[in-house]
Amino acid sequence: MRGFLFSAVLIALVPFSAAAVENEAAAEAGKVEKLDSVIVSASRAGRKTPVTYSMVYKEQMRVSNPLNSLPMVLNLQPSVVAVNEGGTGLGYSKMTVRGSKGSQINVTLNGITLNDAESQEVFWVNIPSLTAMLSSVQLQRGLGTSANGPGAFGASVNMSTASVGPDPYVNASVSAGSYNTFMSTVAAGTGLTRSGVYFDFAYSRNLTDGYIRNAKAKVQSALAVLGWMNGTNSLKLTYLMGDQHTGITWNGIDLDTYYTDRTYNSAGEYYDSFGNVHYYDNETDNYTQHHVQLNYTHQFPENVVWSTTFNFTKGDGYYENYYTDQSFDDYHFSGADNPVMIDGQPYTSGDMIVQEAMDNGYFVLNSDVKYSSDKLNFTGGVNLSLYDGGHIGNVLWSQVHGDAYDYDAYNDAHTWYYNTSLKQEANVFARAEYMPADWITAYIDLQYRGISLRMEGPDDDAGLLDYSKTWNFFNPRAGLTFTWTDRNKAYVSAALGNREPGRSDIKENIKSINSGSREGMTIRPEKMVDVEIGYQYTAPEVTASANLYFMEYFDMLLETGRLTDVGYAIKENVDRAYRRGLELAVAWRPEPWFRLDANTTLSTNKVKDYRMYGEDGTVTDYGKVTMLMSPSVTGMLQLAFTPFSNIAHNSLKTTTLSLNGKYVSRQYADNTQNKALSLPGYYVVNLSLTHEFNVGGGLLGLGGYINNLFDYRYFADASVYGTDMYVYPQAPLNFMLRLSYSF
Fold first, then answer.
1. Is the alpha carbon torsion for 346, 351, 353, 358 positive or negative?
2. pLDDT at 626 over 70
């Protein structure tokens, strides 16, 4: 830890010392924008970088359905499939890109990773209404550029908070819709003042009952930015808070129940002594995150920019569950020969209310330097991080002991398990783009990741999670971009990526080895070779692109389709697998009042020689199979009409009608390629109508949004328990209305 802090201080002092020596005067205003954007540029691809990516800008997010989390907003991008556990866009949302799951998608905010260091997942529900706080999002598909945090293993999402503007502003909006959904957002900022100081603030609060039972959500988020900027220096303090209280929705329902009661959810269900069914009201998931980032950026002579960011993330939360017929021995209330005695009656089990909690801190230092010239762009940097997390199990109530029992005095403040994780990482990268001629750019990107993980203590089943491991990964990337005219661009690239297993992967592997079902099969890191070949045509009225990808996996950590008792995917190593596909996209605007956007992905996603290990120790060979939750075809079509765009000085010119549809072909719930355990393909259409009035020097906005316009009944995700499939129904036709004002 002392070495980490010493390195952090040393690296951070370099740009401050250099700035003091130079003491340059403020440069032209154009440098302001450059300084403001350089924070995220280290992990982003540029126009001539041979990486497959798409951009989503603030205006697109501003007019999107306010109900949608960021994965739902990105759902229209090529190869993306987004779903929501509760059936709507609010609550637990997740997405896949080319079939790659959440733990394989690297997510950064202002260059700092948001992936949980243990699980490698991003829980989007923890930061609701994030789209209202962003200026842009770059979605990279494939291994992409080298990035901080967990290695990107299928995609990267690089987000930037709203950049500073020249003028003060105020924005406010309220939205209401189906399932008692109500959302409110307010944002304000000073703009860049004459002294170079600026301040931005945003707050959002959202409520919903959700579509399925217990899909309730009460979530809020806040963003505050205090900064100072001149021509050569930028100092920026950013605070981001996310607070979520949601019902547990990860159980899913079996197909028989799906066809009789689509909104059923077993979470919190129990029976009284008379056989009457009840539901525990506080069957919930609760989590709060606080992110604090301090960034300093300095412009040197000769087109050199140095940027350093300190980040601290504090997270804590818990699941609260009602469990029926629990053994007292498992919770250390009694032993096999020492049952609980109540009024002379022995008890060995009973119903319980428990909390499984997390408490963690995440420290990051990220520092990089960027050089730009007509022929060469170079970026190099270092990222140091430390994650310290605890997992605690608390008993709140027992049916047998009742309310009068002093649970706080039991077993060290009613704690039945406590384990910790300490994860440290050093990440160094260097990336260069060189143009030997105007029509060609050579690209090389080298990254080293060193990771140390130590886990200690018992889990909820009393099994020890003692584990210590160090990994060293070298991830090279290289490619060429050809731009023989302003309208034509082609590229080819090859990349190697390595990634360590997550905490849940290691935990389940330890348990399976201890149980004898997979004796001696220690979990291994995974690696992938990614080859991308792409072409893009850009003209005033049309943009079109085509991309071939070959993602070849070795020792892939493949999801099995089964979930842990708290909703994490259970994975296992497979020797060889691949994802290969063709991505096509087009945007066409023949007239100012009409725009068409479309994309499709045709892919094959296979595991060679798949072998399934049963929980009872049985082994079944399936040969070559299609990976779970990996559709062979996805597609999107969007039509946007602004019929009065040519009318001068009339608010009708802002009226926009947008119609979009998303198609996802059949997906398998596990890796046996069993059609009985599969999700049928689906096509869902959404409609929106937006309009803005000029009122009192500002803009009054109205928006109406209809999701699932044709009331299609479908499920978009599934898990497997034994031989049964459990599915997650999506909401039928539903709507949202939004009223906003900005000036």
1. positive
2. yes
Rounded CA Rg of the chain: 26
Q: Read off the pLDDT band of 665 (50, 70, 90).
A: very high
According to DSSP, residue 100 is labeled B
Contacts of residue 304, Cβ cutoff 8 Å, sequence gap at least 6:
369, 370, 371
Mean pLDDT of 467-491: 95
- Could you tell me if 595 and 587 are in contact, meaning their C-beta atoms sit under 8 angstroms apart? yes
For strands 667-668 and 105-109, give the pairing: unpaired
**Cβ atoms < 10 Å from Cβ of 452:** 15
The number of distinct structural domains making up the chain is 1
Tens-digit pLDDT profile for residues 190-205: 999 999 999 999 999 9
Token pair 């950049």 is found at 163
SS (H, E, C) 577-608: EEEEEEEEEEEEEEECCEEEEEEEEEEEEEEE
Could you identify the residue written with the tokens 């963003």?
223
Q: Which helix (H) or strand (E) holds 436?
A: strand 415-437
Pull the structure tokens for residue 234.
């930028």
Task: Read off φ and ψ for residue 528, nearest 5 degrees.
Answer: -145, 140
CA-nearest of 15, 41, 524, 119 to 362 is: 119
The answer to whether the CB of 703 falls within 8 A of the CB of 63 is yes
Amino acid sitting at position 514: N
- Mean pLDDT confidence for 442-466: 93
Instruction: Report d(CA 184, CA 172) in Å as an integer.
Output: 8
Q: Where are the alpha helices (DSSP H) in 93-184?
A: none
Beta bridge partners of 685: 661
Query: Which DSSP category does 115 fall into?
Result: S
Neighbours of 359 (CB within 10 A): 15
> 3-class SS at 508?
helix
Residue 111: what pLDDT?
81
Asked if residue 430 lies in contact with residue 443, where contact means CB atoms within 8 angstroms, the answer is no
- The position carrying tokens 């819709």 is 177
Give yes or no for residue 521 having a pLDDT over 80. Answer: no
**Residue whose C-alpha is closest to residue 318's, from 415, 455, 408, 253:** 415
Name the more confident of 368 and 9: 368
Instruction: Report the alpha-carbon distance of residue 741 to residue 135 in Å, rounded.
Output: 18
Q: Which tokens belong to 736?
A: 């949202």
The pair of three-digit structure tokens given for residue 187, joined into one six-digit string = 């944002």
- Of 707, 705, 703, the residue nearest 739 (C-alpha): 703
Instruction: Report how far Cα 331 is from the mean position of its chain's Cα atoms.
Output: 34
Question: Please, which residues have CB within 8 angstroms of residue 731's CB and are 6 or more apart in sequence?
Answer: 87, 88, 178, 179, 211, 707, 708
**Cα atoms in the Cβ-side hemisphere of radius 13 Å centred on 80:** 26
For 314, half-sphere exposure in the C-beta direction (CA atoms, 13 angstrom radius) is 4
CA angle 289–292–297, rounded 5-degree value = 150
**Structural domain range at position 438:** 2-742
The residues with which 648 forms a beta bridge, in sequence order, are: none
The 3-state DSSP class for residue 471 equals strand
Q: Which residue has the tokens 């069957």?
A: 283
Is the pLDDT at 684 greater than 80? The verdict is yes
For residue 341, how far is the Cα from the chain centroid? Answer: 48
pLDDT band of 305, cuts 50, 70, 90 = very high
Share of the chain above pLDDT 70, in %: 90
In order, the DSSP letters of 373-413 are: -SSEEEEEEEEEEEEEEEEEEEEEEETTT-TTS-GGGTHHH
State the Cα–Cα distance between residues 742 and 732, nearest whole angstrom: 32
The span from the CA of 698 to the CA of 742, in Å, is 6
Indicate which CATH number applies to the domain containing 139. Answer: 2.40.170.20
| For residues 648-660, average pLDDT | 82
Specify the 3-state DSSP secondary structure of 655.
coil
- For the record, the structure tokens of 379 come out as 């970026």
Amino acid occupying residue 522? T
